[in-house]
Amino acid sequence: MMEGKVSGLREAVIRLNISGPESSIEVEAVLDTGFNGFLTLSRPVVRALGLLARGSRRATLADGSIVALDVYRATVQWNGQKRRVLALQAEGGSLVGMSLLYGSRVVLDVVEGGDVLIEPLPRTH
Description:
Blueprint: E1 2-6, E2 12-19, E3 24-31, E4 39-41, H1 43-49, E5 53-60, E6 66-78, E7 81-89, E8 94-96, H2 98-101, E9 104-108, E10 115-120
Parallel strand pairs: 3-8, 4-7
Antiparallel strand pairs: 1-2, 1-10, 2-3, 2-6, 4-8, 5-6, 6-7, 9-10
């Protein structure tokens, strides 16, 4: 199970260990159910990990604007297992999207300091 907290800004925040070819770091990431990708990372995090660009993708931001974002491969420690994921480089903090959350149960106590719990769903097949 992964755990985090709801911030004073009413964001569900977890800590993630992310690895690249040059290093591993821990980042705070906000759960974003409006983002259908895996993960966004800032330019400084991408550089620190030594990630190599794999191309770019068009993305629609929350304000409706469309931008091209560079795509990278990173490894995330997720519920005790390493997962290779696509990460988009974007301004701002790191975001966890629905593709990374897929197959999980997410429980939020939506008050400042409330618990954020993420656990894998039992496999039925």
